[in-house]
Amino acid sequence: MAPTPKRSFLPLLLLFLLSLSALFLFSLYHSSARPLHSSPSFLTQRPCNPTSQTTNDNKIFTLVIKVLAFDRLSSLSRCLRSLSGADYGGDRVNLHVYIDHLKNLGNGSVNLDEKLNESRRILDFVDGFSWKFGKKMVHYRTGNVGLQAQWLEAWWPSSDDEFAFVVEDDLEVSPLYYKFLRGLIENYYYNASNFSPWIYGASLQRPRFVPGKHGNKLQLDSDAHIFLYQLVGTWGQLLFPRPWKEFRLWYDTHKAKGIKPFLQGMVTTGWYKKMGERIWTPWFIKFIHSHGYFNLYTSFSHERALSVSHRDAGVNYGKTAGPDSYLLDKNSLDFDLLEMQPLSKLKWYDFCFRRVLPDRVVRSINELGSVLHSLQRLETVILVSIHKVPQTVTRNLLCHFERQNIQNYILVGSESNFLLDFARQGHPVIDADQFLDNMQARKFKKSSIELVKAYVVKKTLELGYNIGVMDGNTLPVSGDLFLDLIDPHYDFYFGNTFKVLLVKSSSSAKKIWVEDFIYKVAVMVESSKSKDDGNFVYIVAKLLEQMGVKNKGIDEMSFDLSIDASNRNQTSLADGKKMVFWSYEMGTDLIRKRLEELGMWVVDGDSSCMAVVCHQS
């Protein structure tokens, strides 16, 4: 019998090593392809992700389409066909379809079998629908949750680089919509020079609604294709990840505490009172209002849009109303869709469609002029010091300004996030610390705020405006605070307890308010021994008295009202009062209590205005 030949293990060893190498390379590729956690700036370059898109500067992002459907098969079919007909340029885009369950009709309902069959036809259609641009996921609910839960539960971002485009099933999108959204993301999210953390997304619907009662008409420049507007657009809304997460957590807190999304002066509050939790937009609008977020919007001529609602019968419409706009496509495109202006050139609008001018921060005397020109009304500017004023008290003051349509004010305070946040929301501010650094006037440490006030008065007079000066421990009752005080025989007006100062712009006032006068103000503040002695208005009055300059006293018996503890029984405003005030020693809780008694505390638990008050521009 022939001996059995010895088996060679060399080929097996080579095969094992080759397999091990292949496994190592496969693992290395997928570990590098896994998205990294975002840095705080979320602008860090990341390696390529096979399920994501790469921007021009190698930033990675993922876009997921979220389709919200219920019982409208023809609407859903039209929506999905339009989405699949768009140009995705080879990008991988996933599709998630959320189908709400039919409502519980009861076993005795004659429509039950018909409704069940309709749901199955919808499921069969979605199951058979081909999506060749990425993964398709279908979520069929076990119970009816309604439109609010459909929106709120559709997305929780997996990273700061994941975006959601949410469409309801009666929408139809343009074949150009994705290219435009991609351009927006590249330009206004990943381009650091155009990025703002206070933009929460972009709406593709045609702007046609102002939710603030008595708001302005929608009037836009014909060549301005992109602008910013606080209102969410539910007919094709792109959502950015961080603001959406913040909203969801805010919603959870307010819902758990039983806080309703009431916002006086808004049409949407009436919707909520009528429809309750069937709709979600009043919640989001209340969040946007309290946090100061904005939404990118498009404006195309001839009522065109990249997303059109057919307004089919459903939660929002009792009967079909038809398309609200015309789809913009290649045949009707008569401009460069991807030409996008820098963020600094875009216009911003609030819920009243009132122009908002963000980031007006004065850090030098040279920057003051343009800001004063932007806010001047009735030839008088109001300078308000918020130095050492509690944040909620300052916000209450600004809410009163909005109610009274007072727009001719500028805030001055020390450098802080608090001050810059006001500027972001459209309130003009002066950064006192930077201002004095640029004036090289830091040697006057004690008188910093008063010194800034003095320089602002000088510049305002030079520009030909009157100026009123007040501190944040005062609150105007009406919008005509200084209107009827002007007397042709006087340039300077003081309250007897030195809470307010009004200086009329005149050649004589400008000759008095010069550098030497400002220096004397600073010296007197530095040498003051008490808070009252260092009061800006008191020192100005004393200097003018020494110079023999005539001034007019304000009759404070009829002008203002103290809400200090000594007047705690005062629970109403007498006729003719234009201002209430209190001492700096009063605590925030007591200030709030006293103002609530007078009906003058108008901020809510989020420290935002209880109402949106629109005034025709």
TrEMBL record:
Record's keyword annotation contains Signal: yes
Protein name: Ubiquitin carboxyl-terminal hydrolase
Keyword Protease annotated: no
Record's signal peptide: 1-33
Keyword terms of this UniProt record: Hydrolase, Signal
GO molecular function, one term: hydrolase activity
